[in-house]
Amino acid sequence: MRIARFTVGDGPTKVGSVAADTVTELLPRPGSSPDDLLIDLLERAAKGRLPKADEVARAGGDFDLGDVELQSPIRRPGKLLAVGLNYADHTKESGMRRPEVPVVFTKQGTCVTGPFSPIVRPRASSQIDYEGELGVVIGRRCRHVPARRAREVVGGYLVVNDVSVRDWQLATPTMTLGKSWDTHGPLGPWITTTDDVPDPHDLRVRTWVCGELRQDGSTRDLLTDVDAIIAHISTACTLEPGDIIATGTPAGVGHAMSPPRYLRAGDTVRIEIEGLGSISNTVVDELDDAAYIEGDVLAGRSA
Predict the structure, then answer these.
(1) Beta partners for 15?
(2) Nearest 5°: phi and psi at 269?
(3) Does 140 map to a domain?
């Protein structure tokens, strides 16, 4: 199943199942929300008990995919974690040694944006970069999961662009602020549940910038695979349904080019992962009146 969050015109956000060029609205139980339904579907997918779309939809309507606006499949993940330097070729182009343990960092949830929404190039930096990555969506609450059982807690997979502000990323060891700017976490286009992804370690990952192929890798080359990543992270913290783990990017990022080729306003970044679909985001410059305190706009001033 491909589970999407979407809107039609100015209407409320819905959850649907995507098949070919149609989205079938899936209706939540009375008293629950569409997002509650999405989490329930992730949990059922992880347990191998996913119902057919028509068993969930009942009175749900059908919409042409071209008539809806796809939203981020998870509106605000409880955790959005990412793994750095997880491909040998990207580690080499970054001039770094292969990590002895996975390099895990956090992208703040406010960075999340839709699969076709703009990426904002901030006034504070011109070193904006792309990273096409496989995202793993957790489906079951878990802790201390052994690698051999890691797939039992996965609800599905999606495409992630780990947009990075390189000078802010490299200024401190944690990388958090360089990875967490608003709109710098495009996700989508939907969640493909585990029953439709036979092997997450055999997926081609490609990134184009303005039609130019920049990244062309495969999850076969992950240094720490999905199972080991889940085992490692769940040793430290409880993972919950809707949490997302971005598994790292292959070679071809703009920062590693000579000279570096950072994103500029008007550039479009398209990332496609085999079997999961693609996302495409156009870069726009930050507006001068972007600074604000709720209820009190601070036009043209940094917060």
Answers:
(1) 5
(2) -105, 120
(3) yes
Q: Are residues 60 and 30 in the same domain?
A: yes
For residue 150, what are the domain limits?
80-285
When divided into structural domains, the chain yields a total of: 2
pLDDT band at 60 (very low <50, low <70, confident <90, very high): confident
Cβ–Cβ < 8 Å for 161, 131: yes
User: How large is the average pLDDT for residues 66-93?
Assistant: 97
Whether residue 85 sits in one domain with residue 190:
yes
Question: Residues 15, 164: one domain?
Answer: no
Q: Are residues 166 and 42 in the same domain?
A: no
Residue at 258: amino acid letter: S
* Co-location of 57 and 127 in the same domain: no
Q: How confident is the model at residue 302 (pLDDT cuts 50, 70, 90)?
A: very low
> What average pLDDT is seen over the chain?
94
The model's pLDDT over 189-217, given as tens digits with 9 standing for 90+, comes to: 999 999 999 999 999 999 999 999 999 99
Backbone angles phi, psi at 108, to 5 degrees: -65, 145
Please give the span between the terminal C-alpha atoms of the chain, in angstroms, as a whole number.
Answer: 43
Which pLDDT tens digit goes with each residue over 227-269?
999 999 999 999 999 999 999 999 999 999 999 999 999 999 9
Which among 155, 179, 152 has a CA at the least distance from the CA of 83? 179
123, 265: one domain: yes
Any domain includes 301: no
Question: Is the model's pLDDT at 296 over the cut of 90?
Answer: no
Residue 88 inside a domain? The answer is: yes
Pair (61, 99) in one structural domain: no
Q: What does the pLDDT read at residue 109?
A: 97
